[in-house]
Design a protein that fits this description.
Elements lengths: L1 H5 L6 E4 L4 H9 L4 E4 L5 H38 L11 H18 L5 E5 L3 H8 L1 H18 L5 E6 L2 E5 L1
Parallel strand pairs: 1-2
Antiparallel strand pairs: 3-5, 4-5
Length: about 170
Protein backbone atom coordinates (compact mmCIF):
# COMPACT_ATOMS: atom_id res chain seq x y z
CA UNK A 1 0.00 0.00 0.00
CA UNK A 2 2.81 2.41 0.84
CA UNK A 3 4.54 1.66 -2.45
CA UNK A 4 1.31 2.24 -4.42
CA UNK A 5 0.84 5.60 -2.67
CA UNK A 6 4.50 6.54 -3.04
CA UNK A 7 4.85 5.54 -6.70
CA UNK A 8 1.36 5.63 -8.26
CA UNK A 9 2.79 5.64 -11.82
CA UNK A 10 4.73 2.41 -11.28
CA UNK A 11 3.18 -1.00 -11.94
CA UNK A 12 3.72 -3.28 -8.95
CA UNK A 13 4.16 -7.06 -8.92
CA UNK A 14 4.42 -8.76 -5.54
CA UNK A 15 7.10 -11.48 -5.64
CA UNK A 16 7.08 -13.57 -2.47
CA UNK A 17 7.84 -17.01 -1.12
CA UNK A 18 4.35 -17.31 0.40
CA UNK A 19 1.78 -19.11 -1.75
CA UNK A 20 -1.16 -17.52 0.05
CA UNK A 21 -4.34 -16.87 -1.98
CA UNK A 22 -5.78 -14.47 0.58
CA UNK A 23 -2.54 -12.48 0.62
CA UNK A 24 -2.55 -12.39 -3.19
CA UNK A 25 -6.10 -10.99 -3.26
CA UNK A 26 -5.19 -8.43 -0.60
CA UNK A 27 -2.16 -7.32 -2.64
CA UNK A 28 -4.28 -6.91 -5.77
CA UNK A 29 -6.94 -4.96 -3.87
CA UNK A 30 -4.20 -2.72 -2.48
CA UNK A 31 -3.11 -1.82 -6.01
CA UNK A 32 -0.62 -4.44 -7.16
CA UNK A 33 -1.05 -5.64 -10.74
CA UNK A 34 0.02 -9.22 -10.07
CA UNK A 35 1.29 -11.65 -7.41
CA UNK A 36 4.02 -14.23 -8.05
CA UNK A 37 5.36 -17.00 -5.85
CA UNK A 38 9.13 -17.43 -6.02
CA UNK A 39 10.33 -20.56 -7.79
CA UNK A 40 6.97 -21.23 -9.48
CA UNK A 41 7.70 -20.29 -13.07
CA UNK A 42 10.29 -19.75 -15.72
CA UNK A 43 12.09 -16.57 -16.70
CA UNK A 44 9.71 -16.20 -19.65
CA UNK A 45 6.74 -16.47 -17.25
CA UNK A 46 8.26 -13.68 -15.16
CA UNK A 47 8.81 -11.48 -18.24
CA UNK A 48 5.25 -12.11 -19.44
CA UNK A 49 3.89 -11.26 -15.96
CA UNK A 50 5.87 -8.02 -15.86
CA UNK A 51 4.73 -7.10 -19.37
CA UNK A 52 1.06 -7.81 -18.58
CA UNK A 53 1.32 -5.96 -15.27
CA UNK A 54 2.59 -2.89 -17.12
CA UNK A 55 -0.25 -3.14 -19.62
CA UNK A 56 -2.88 -3.56 -16.87
CA UNK A 57 -1.41 -0.57 -15.05
CA UNK A 58 -1.53 1.59 -18.18
CA UNK A 59 -5.11 0.51 -18.85
CA UNK A 60 -6.11 1.28 -15.27
CA UNK A 61 -4.57 4.77 -15.48
CA UNK A 62 -6.34 5.41 -18.80
CA UNK A 63 -9.68 4.31 -17.37
CA UNK A 64 -9.19 6.46 -14.27
CA UNK A 65 -8.38 9.48 -16.43
CA UNK A 66 -11.48 8.84 -18.55
CA UNK A 67 -13.55 8.45 -15.40
CA UNK A 68 -12.28 11.82 -14.12
CA UNK A 69 -13.13 13.44 -17.47
CA UNK A 70 -16.62 11.92 -17.37
CA UNK A 71 -17.13 13.20 -13.83
CA UNK A 72 -16.08 16.70 -14.92
CA UNK A 73 -18.39 16.52 -17.95
CA UNK A 74 -21.23 15.33 -15.71
CA UNK A 75 -20.65 18.22 -13.30
CA UNK A 76 -20.70 20.70 -16.22
CA UNK A 77 -23.90 19.17 -17.62
CA UNK A 78 -25.54 19.21 -14.21
CA UNK A 79 -24.63 22.87 -13.79
CA UNK A 80 -25.93 23.69 -17.27
CA UNK A 81 -29.20 21.90 -16.52
CA UNK A 82 -29.78 24.11 -13.47
CA UNK A 83 -28.66 27.51 -14.73
CA UNK A 84 -30.48 29.95 -16.99
CA UNK A 85 -28.24 30.40 -20.02
CA UNK A 86 -29.09 34.10 -20.50
CA UNK A 87 -28.61 35.42 -16.97
CA UNK A 88 -26.56 32.60 -15.42
CA UNK A 89 -28.96 32.69 -12.47
CA UNK A 90 -30.48 29.44 -11.31
CA UNK A 91 -33.36 28.16 -13.43
CA UNK A 92 -36.49 26.50 -11.98
CA UNK A 93 -34.74 23.16 -11.53
CA UNK A 94 -31.75 24.78 -9.84
CA UNK A 95 -34.06 26.80 -7.60
CA UNK A 96 -35.99 23.66 -6.60
CA UNK A 97 -32.76 21.97 -5.53
CA UNK A 98 -31.52 25.07 -3.70
CA UNK A 99 -34.89 25.51 -2.00
CA UNK A 100 -34.89 21.88 -0.84
CA UNK A 101 -31.35 22.22 0.59
CA UNK A 102 -32.08 25.55 2.26
CA UNK A 103 -35.36 24.36 3.79
CA UNK A 104 -33.56 21.35 5.28
CA UNK A 105 -30.84 23.63 6.63
CA UNK A 106 -33.39 26.08 8.08
CA UNK A 107 -35.23 23.24 9.83
CA UNK A 108 -32.00 21.88 11.32
CA UNK A 109 -30.94 25.33 12.48
CA UNK A 110 -34.47 26.32 13.62
CA UNK A 111 -34.11 29.30 11.34
CA UNK A 112 -36.20 30.99 8.66
CA UNK A 113 -35.86 31.09 4.91
CA UNK A 114 -36.98 34.25 3.16
CA UNK A 115 -38.18 34.19 -0.44
CA UNK A 116 -38.16 37.44 -2.38
CA UNK A 117 -39.97 37.68 -5.72
CA UNK A 118 -38.76 40.42 -8.06
CA UNK A 119 -40.89 41.26 -11.10
CA UNK A 120 -39.42 43.54 -13.78
CA UNK A 121 -42.28 45.78 -14.95
CA UNK A 122 -42.88 46.46 -18.65
CA UNK A 123 -39.92 44.51 -19.99
CA UNK A 124 -42.01 43.65 -23.05
CA UNK A 125 -42.53 47.35 -23.80
CA UNK A 126 -38.82 48.00 -23.31
CA UNK A 127 -38.04 45.19 -25.77
CA UNK A 128 -40.44 46.67 -28.35
CA UNK A 129 -38.72 50.07 -28.20
CA UNK A 130 -35.07 49.04 -27.73
CA UNK A 131 -34.97 45.48 -29.10
CA UNK A 132 -34.64 42.08 -27.49
CA UNK A 133 -30.84 42.33 -27.27
CA UNK A 134 -31.14 45.42 -25.09
CA UNK A 135 -33.76 43.64 -22.97
CA UNK A 136 -31.39 40.69 -22.54
CA UNK A 137 -28.65 43.07 -21.35
CA UNK A 138 -31.10 44.58 -18.85
CA UNK A 139 -31.93 41.11 -17.51
CA UNK A 140 -28.22 40.28 -17.14
CA UNK A 141 -27.61 43.64 -15.41
CA UNK A 142 -30.52 43.04 -13.04
CA UNK A 143 -29.19 39.57 -12.22
CA UNK A 144 -25.72 40.98 -11.48
CA UNK A 145 -27.24 43.74 -9.32
CA UNK A 146 -29.25 41.21 -7.31
CA UNK A 147 -26.22 38.93 -6.90
CA UNK A 148 -24.09 41.87 -5.75
CA UNK A 149 -26.76 42.73 -3.15
CA UNK A 150 -27.03 39.31 -1.49
CA UNK A 151 -24.70 37.06 0.45
CA UNK A 152 -22.72 34.36 -1.32
CA UNK A 153 -24.79 31.78 0.57
CA UNK A 154 -28.06 33.16 -0.85
CA UNK A 155 -29.52 32.14 -4.21
CA UNK A 156 -31.02 34.03 -7.14
CA UNK A 157 -33.00 32.35 -9.87
CA UNK A 158 -34.95 33.37 -12.94
CA UNK A 159 -38.43 31.85 -12.73
CA UNK A 160 -40.07 33.56 -15.71
CA UNK A 161 -38.98 35.82 -18.54
CA UNK A 162 -39.02 38.88 -16.24
CA UNK A 163 -39.32 37.41 -12.74
CA UNK A 164 -36.60 36.49 -10.28
CA UNK A 165 -36.80 34.56 -7.03
CA UNK A 166 -34.21 35.23 -4.33
CA UNK A 167 -33.72 32.79 -1.45
CA UNK A 168 -32.26 34.45 1.64
Amino acid sequence: RRLVNHAPRTPIVVHTSRADGALAVEALRAGAQDYLVKGSGSASDLLRTLHFAGERHRLKRTLLAQSDELAEDNARLTRLSMVDDLTEALDRRGLRQALKRELEWARRQDSILLELLIDVDDLGGFNEVHGRGAGDRVLRDITRAIQASIRTTDHVGRVDSDQFLVLL
